[in-house]
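Practice problem 4.
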């Protein structure tokens, strides 16, 4: 599966647009990460537990988007974007979306 943030795939021509595909995941914090985050707010610095949590969530959202495109028979996903939002106290949604296409 070819993944690009651009609207086209360099050197390829889009034969057919199959529609928007997306993958979402809602990730929550855990007590261990919360404790370490609290400590980091005192001394400053990167909160690595949260960075890892969000990287895992982005990976899973991207995988779900790819799975949806694969089911449609896509060769590529163009115009990929990521978004996030807080859905409740201590939980965030990560979404990956783009347009599934067939290439010539």
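Answer key:
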């Amino acid at each position: 599966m070819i993944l690009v943030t651009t609207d086209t795939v360099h050197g390829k021509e889009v034969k057919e647009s199959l529609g928007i595909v997306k993958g979402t995941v809602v990730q929550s914090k855990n007590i261990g990460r919360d404790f370490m985050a609290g400590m980091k707010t005192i001394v400053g610095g990167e909160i690595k537990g949260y960075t890892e949590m969000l990287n895992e969530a982005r990976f899973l959202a991207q995988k779900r988007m790819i799975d949806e495109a694969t089911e449609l028979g896509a060769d590529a996903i163009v115009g990929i974007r990521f978004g996030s939002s807080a859905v409740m106290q201590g939980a965030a949604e990560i979404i990956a979306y783009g347009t599934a296409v067939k290439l010539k």
